[in-house]
Amino acid sequence: MGRARARTRRAGRAAVNHHPATPARNGSTLHPLRAKRLGIETQHEPIVFTHADCPVARSEGFAARAQVQLSAGGRSALATLYQVSSDIVAVDEVGLSETVWHRLGVSEGTVIKVRHPQPLDSMSFVRAKVYGHRLDAERLGTIIKDVVAERYSDVQLAAFITAFSSQPVQLAEMVALTRAMVEAGDRLTWPGTPIVDKHSVGGLPANRTTPIVVAIVAAAGLVIPKTSSRAITSPAGTADAMETMTPVDLDIPAMRRVVEREGGCVVWGGSVRLSPADDILIRVERALDLDSPAQLVASVLSKKIAAGSTHVLLDLPVGPTAKLRTAEEAAELSAHLQAVAAAFNLKVRPLLGDGSQPVGIGLGPALEARDVLAVLRRDREAPEDLRSRAVRLAGALLELGGAVAEGGGEAVAAEILADGRALTKFMGICEAQGGFREPPIAPLQHVIQSPVSGLLSGIDNRLLARVAKLAGAPRSPSAGLELHVKLGDRVERGQPLMTLHGESPGELEYAWDFAKANPGVLQVSPR
Amino acid sequence: MGRARARTRRAGRAAVNHHPATPARNGSTLHPLRAKRLGIETQHEPIVFTHADCPVARSEGFAARAQVQLSAGGRSALATLYQVSSDIVAVDEVGLSETVWHRLGVSEGTVIKVRHPQPLDSMSFVRAKVYGHRLDAERLGTIIKDVVAERYSDVQLAAFITAFSSQPVQLAEMVALTRAMVEAGDRLTWPGTPIVDKHSVGGLPANRTTPIVVAIVAAAGLVIPKTSSRAITSPAGTADAMETMTPVDLDIPAMRRVVEREGGCVVWGGSVRLSPADDILIRVERALDLDSPAQLVASVLSKKIAAGSTHVLLDLPVGPTAKLRTAEEAAELSAHLQAVAAAFNLKVRPLLGDGSQPVGIGLGPALEARDVLAVLRRDREAPEDLRSRAVRLAGALLELGGAVAEGGGEAVAAEILADGRALTKFMGICEAQGGFREPPIAPLQHVIQSPVSGLLSGIDNRLLARVAKLAGAPRSPSAGLELHVKLGDRVERGQPLMTLHGESPGELEYAWDFAKANPGVLQVSPR
Fold first, then answer.
1. What is the reported pLDDT for A203?
2. What global pTM score does this model have?
3. Average pLDDT in the B314-323 region?
4. pLDDT at res. A31
């Protein structure tokens, strides 16, 4: 039995049945699909839908959940394709989620080409990293460029993030990752130095020192062009709180005008495209609740380097339910941050602080803004912990930026706050950003009283943040909670522990139910 | 300024505005949602949709892409929630993907409760693993139970898989993972021993020895209740090929009847629930193209242990584009498999083979089935490589199962095939499974000829599999390709290299385009 003959067994018959049509160079141009907007919010995850009988999906051989490339009018986007047997899309339509709709910039009915994406070659570098190899600057650069181009699925991003968390950190790799993230986005430049900045490593609710620190430092004559984030998993980000008082959605020219006039600003970082890889990676890191030192360092420093900062103060709250659990963890992170920053000629100073409980009274955008205003206005009822923390940070930043000699910063900061210059500067910044308004007050409030008398022995920051979010923060600006007690306080039965604020009865009920079901939120030990 | 006084600043006002309604015990019972079937195919990924103005989503505070728990009529399912602003769902509806629809077993309009899921506590064990800790049997058991309950998102599964791939393998952990996977599903038991089985570590197209091996071994009197998989990333799984000849979708009682009558079967493993965790993990492993030894071992062995096997032959094809690239890799994997199998009193024998090129002529369900039939029928044109490989495997399995003395297995297997007993047994098995039919032939075929004369110096198994899939395999049973040449063959210009088979012109065109654009599929070196 000849093998060669055996293997051509069916070839002869095939030649007879040979399909005569000339294959098109690109099958999808034969079957254009029309765009349909499905209005699906996916938090940046690009997903699209075709009908199960769609000829393009059939001829391209797309399986359910295939990665596909869409293009229209010179723009393109990658997306995960789902197949649909109902009438939400017709056979000649492709249904787009909001992310894809905006990325392609199409209109209803625009012709879209859908095809297999180019292979994601840089995933082989990720696999090499998983298997224990170091990544050099070039490979990390390729990966990060593909991440920013949104060519990575969330599952692939999870592998990248997990690989970094699974293996010991190496300085050269952290520097390379930071550099790759800086270079994959825009960079701001400012005339003159120093350009000062601050960053707080999260995990502590409220801690809304930034607007106060910016006001004090700018009033002292330093330049502090601050970009802040919105909440990802917390009840409010600095940008959310600031937005209850003034517009924060400024583009780069508008931000420049504010900084030129006032020496400082507090704008939302999302409207400037600094280290966009960080925004993508952080979403998956939060979903996994994973933080590798390498990624935390690259995340923090890439944003600062891209923002043109030269001197950065790092606020590192340490506490049992904060991101940094112990002083050792904070020290290790500080060492990494300083080593990597040095490679970029960036001066950083870490400042450890108490992270055992929220700072201030309010949790939620408007409630945190009210705390900020109370401190700036020197209200008798202003939260002392927020005031003293902001003064300490501002003082350290004044020293780091060279405005005040070492050891004298805190006194100067306290004076600028006390004599009203900080308030004047803050109002000037708000005016420059588009005008000041008072933060709103929630229409619905509910006081939660202590069921027993005793000592407040524990606060779970994560559960407390959850209560504020269930009450509607940050989506409803006035929602959240006020915390009326601090660790170590003597509490009487029936005494108010916290007040829930909400804009809808349902949300308030949910927050209340959750707080009742989780007594660990605030632990009162009878004594 | 008294801190206690400061912190009750707004409490007094709050008490006045105190929202008087009594909170409901469960907000979602106040606003039931009606099920709407959206017909979205997601390959087991559970996704659901609510309207942006849905009162439940608002009162529960669900963000876009929140994980939610749905329940109806005593059944529940976890899913990722997307919010929609178009009319594909109404404000009082929840739109279900097919996975969720079937898991809940609901009808159009059924009332569904949607709420926050219980926290996934076992994710903390995954994080511990990521940070380099070993997982004990109890923790692995908890993780795997949650995986089988579909409480893990794909992103979380990716972290679990990556963590295992990033770290050195330890025997105790592999045993614990295997045991956890066995215990999270059903187990088959059979009267008497031995119960023999075979498994091929994939990556090599076609290699469809299983139906032949089962026929030979069962004809020799051994019991071989074989469950096989469908294609995940290949042009055909054994179950797909077998299904072109006989039903494979048998439940456990039906499978038992076949095995009692014939001593063997070839059924689809998906209809019996053996090691269901493996089916879930493997989907994400394939998406990442990651395989850790621990997961490969647990995947292979958990299925075999759950199937009640006592003696398993492992077919390990080694080649540059197979899963196992070198003999060292195969030896290392064999050692792991044998060490873990020993802990379960399971005998395994690895058999290394040539994995440099496809086995047989056809790639695709019906084309591979035709190769199998040609061997069983002793056609003069039957592919010799498939015949000899199947005989070698069957011989080794006869020895492993004690039916033939060591060294004599291959001769006995060859005899059983040559004298027609294997064909008779195969037809008996097909009859018992529901009847035999001839595999279909594709209506459209296209021959690809060699553009040059020379020597066939390379075959890229992965690209070749891709061509067969673009032609429509395995979705279109008769689609795929026939390969007319083998490595080292002398090829003349114009000689047929392969014949594409398809059920639609578009798919055939795509396969053709891809083959032309990728000359590395078959490398002909001029000489």
1. 63
2. 0.83
3. 86
4. 61
Residues of chain B neighbouring A361 (CB-CB closer than 8 A): 6-7, 9-10
Structural domain B27-115, CATH architecture:
Beta Barrel (2.40)
CATH code assigned to A444-525 = 3.90.1170.30
Q: Does A463 touch chain B (CB under 8 A)?
A: no
pLDDT band at B31 (very low <50, low <70, confident <90, very high): low
Concatenate the DSSP letters of all residues of A128-169 into one string: HHHTT----HHHHHHHHHHHHTT-S-HHHHHHHHHHHHHS--
Please tell me the class of the A29-115 domain: mainly beta
- The DSSP bridge partners found for residue B115 are B69
The residue that leads in pLDDT, B62 or B225, is B225
Do residues A260 and A454 make contact, with C-beta atoms less than 8 angstroms apart? no
User: Which ipTM value was assigned to this complex?
Assistant: 0.81
Interatomic CA distance for residues A155 and A160, integer angstroms = 9
Write down the residue that tokens 């020379």 correspond to.
B454
Domain assignments of chain B as residue spans, ordered by start: 27-115, 196-271+304-433, 444-525
What is the DSSP secondary structure assignment for residue B306, as one 8-state letter? H
Right CATH for B196-271+304-433 from 3.60.21.10, 1.20.1290.10, 3.90.1640.30, 3.40.1030.10: 3.40.1030.10
Does residue A486 sit at the B interface (CB-CB below 8 Å)?
A: yes
Query: Residue B17 and residue A445: Cβ atoms within 8 Å?
Result: yes
Residue B404 Cα, gap to closest chain A Cα (Å) = 29
Return the HEC string of B121-163. Answer: CCHHHHHHHHCCCCCCHHHHHHHHHHHHCCCCCHHHHHHHHHH
> Is B10 in contact with A482 (Cβ distance < 8 A)?
yes
Q: Does A444-525 match A196-271+304-433 at the fold level?
A: no
Q: Tell me how far apart the alpha carbons of residues B147 and B170 are, in angstroms, rounded to a whole number.
A: 22
pLDDT at B504: 87
Q: What is the DSSP letter of B440?
A: P
- The DSSP symbol for A62 reads P
Given a cut of 60, whether residue A333 has pLDDT beyond it is yes
Tell me how far apart the alpha carbons of residues B233 and B410 are, in angstroms, rounded to a whole number: 32
- The dihedral over CA atoms of B210, B213, B216, B219, expressed in degrees to the nearest 10, equals -60
